[in-house]
Amino acid sequence: MRVIVNSTPLIALSLIDQLDLLRQLFEEVVVPTSVYQEIVLHGQGRPGADAVAQADWIQICEPGLQATLPPILLGLDQGEMDVLLLARELQADLVLIDEKLGRRIAGILGLRVQGTLGVLLRAYRKHLISQEEAEAAVQRLANSSVRVSPRLIQWFREQLTKGTSTE
Questions:
Q1: In a designed cystine with 3, which of 8, 26, 41, 114 is the match (CB 3.0 to 4.6 A)?
Q2: What residues are paired with 61 via a beta bridge?
Q3: Would you say 18 and 27 are in contact if contact means Cβ atoms under 8 Å apart?
Q4: What CA–CA distance (Å, rounded) separates 20 from 9?
Q5: Is the pLDDT of residue 164 over 50?
Q6: Which of 146, 165, 149 is nearest to 7 (CA)?
Q7: What is d(CA 40, CA 48) in angstroms, rounded to the nearest whole number?
């Protein structure tokens, strides 16, 4: 399974020491050059920078497609736009993006979308982490600089107790 990842899921998973879940869950983890630069080069010393730089299993790729509109006109940043372009170009199985607008546009484009909590849920369902580890990870996220709505946390906890699939 090929996944294209935006910056927030990379940073969030790094913050809770779970970045490696991406390698365990997906055959190909692709990050646009702009997202990599945003985290590793421009974000030096910030959460996620070192973890992403050291993750040699992440493929860094420049999209060959160009947007017909500047990303800012859609309310996106360059990284989000590149994630969407690369996902279409590489026919990705999944896009990992947390920002609401980016998720909405990905859905309009017909892309399958999941966020950081979806990754944790998928890892739990694949028995890579326990329910307690999943709950602790979400609590650490909620206590970090990453914004997670109480409604989303409640949804996550409900999903942990259900047997539904995220795939």
A1: 26
A2: 32
A3: no
A4: 12
A5: no
A6: 146
A7: 8
